[in-house]
Amino acid sequence: MKIGTPKGMRDFSPQQMAKRNYIFNTIEKHFKLFGFEQIETPTMENAQTLKGKYGEEGDRLIFNVLNSGDYLSKVEGGWSSKDSSSLTNDISDKALRYDLTVPFARYVVQHQNEIAFPFRRYQIQPVWRADRPQKGRYREFYQCDADIIGSNSLLNEVDLILLFDRVLSELGMKDFTIKFNHRKLLNGLAEMIGRPEKLIDITVAIDKLDKIGKEKVEEELGARGLSEEEIAKLQPLFELKGDNLLVINSLKDILKGTESGVKGIEEVEELLGLLERTELKKAKLELDLSLARGLNYYTGCIFEVQSNEMEMGSICGGGRYDDLTGIFGLPNMSGVGISFGADRIYDVMEHLGLFPQDIEVQTQLLLANFGGEEAAHALELLQKLREAGLATELYPDAAKLGKQFKYADQKRIPFVLLVGKDEMESGKYQLKNLASGEQNSLSIEEVIAKLK
Fold it and tell me: What digits encode the pLDDT tens for the residues 243-270?
């Protein structure tokens, strides 16, 4: 048997888990601070809940779960007459969740009579995608989502921008950009060239700008049916950059004859006006017309966050969707949501050395085991120390002291308490600091006071 994990799946060591939990706990703390309530949805959803919601490419990346029992015998017309796609539908009616957003939409519809709207929810759970594994891209990874559904107000977008800023600033990032765009601005550009029906073709192409460059994007736009003249008119997508107000003023001239474009400019100006009443700690805010993520269901503002301290791609994202719940029979329920990419944030923090030095310390104190009565006495002390809130272990075997010290060193336990016969009689125990080598004779109350 070949031992290993499936491609794109990972084990996490105690040290890695300490760092991951530091990220999760920081994110969750701010979710609660901003008034979001936690829900969870199942690992598996009915396949029909997920399929058809992410586009053809997304559907191919869904992990299907085989039906239990003799599933092939139940295939209508016999399995040998089916192609792989239709056969999958017959033998699998469940799938692992691809993201947290579509299950959230299903949850809102299913529980609409129990929810107070606008509903502020957060989820921190793993998702699965049958993608090609590469750096920063895994088949199993966590999403940390916050959504506000049941309100059209741009105050919600402001709140989520502030949430990006507060979380990433507390995690120690000093230079990152929150890029944003608006679906209506892109609609306006498509209207401006007289090809509103080509919006998705245009956005699919320009979304690849960072990966393949301007010339290749223009080639793809041509392949998607746009003329050279129409592509030339779309140059603002590539060239309008810099100060947000200057970009907006240029767009006012370019999009002045388009209904969608004018409305989009109004909403972007309102958003920036509201943000002027707030204060961003570290984030830069950039209107980026080439940002076109997820427009299959985003209908308003679109967000993407990038670290400027290392090359990683987006570490967070999100946007407004006006009718996501409509696919489950509850129309006109507008919402806006964001997601923190915990795995990419981890990679950035590891590269920049942003994790606190003491984050890996789990156990604070190890009680050395001398066997017999000393071990029994140490067991009594163990309970007192834990009741005082100190993370404490008793070494289970009466091994040589050198072995016990080595164990503490490997686990990064900073202190060892020696509990021998002399210590039992005097009530003073030898507390050894493994980093400095310093050793003090202290009562158990003094040990507690010193370590707390």
Answer: 999 999 999 999 998 999 999 999 999 9
- For the chain, the average pLDDT equals 91
Report CA-CA distances (Å) from 261 to 59, 258, 300.
31, 5, 12
CA distance 238 to 450: 61
Is it true that the peptide bond before 133 is cis, omega within 30 degrees of 0? no
Element (H or E) spanning 142, and its range? Answer: strand 140-149
Q: How far apart are CA 124 and CA 145, in angstroms?
A: 6
Q: Which two tokens stand for residue 171?
A: 């995690």
For the beta carbon of residue 273, count every other beta carbon within 10 angstroms. 11
Give the residue among 68, 53, 59 at the shortest CA–CA distance from 130.
59
Cα–Cα nearest to 241, from 289, 208, 281 = 289
Largest CA distance in the chain: 94
Contact 186, 203 (CB under 8 A): yes
pLDDT at 74 over 70: no
Phi-psi region of 372 (alpha: psi -120 to 50; beta: other; left: phi over 0): left
Across-strand partners of 429?
A: 442
Q: Give the Cα separation of 394 and 384 in Å (integer).
A: 12
Is residue 264 within 8 Å of residue 182, measured between CB atoms?
A: yes
Which tokens go with 176? 């990152």
Length reported for the chain: 452
The total of other beta-carbon atoms located within 10 Å of residue 29's CB is: 13
Q: For 431-443, what is each residue's pLDDT tens digit?
A: 999 999 999 999 9
Q: How many CB atoms lie within 10 A of CB 193?
A: 18
Q: Does the bond joining 118 to the residue before it have cis omega, within 30 degrees of 0?
A: yes
Pair of tokens at residue 137: 């891209």
Instruction: Return d(Cα 425, Cα 428) in angstroms, integer.
Output: 8
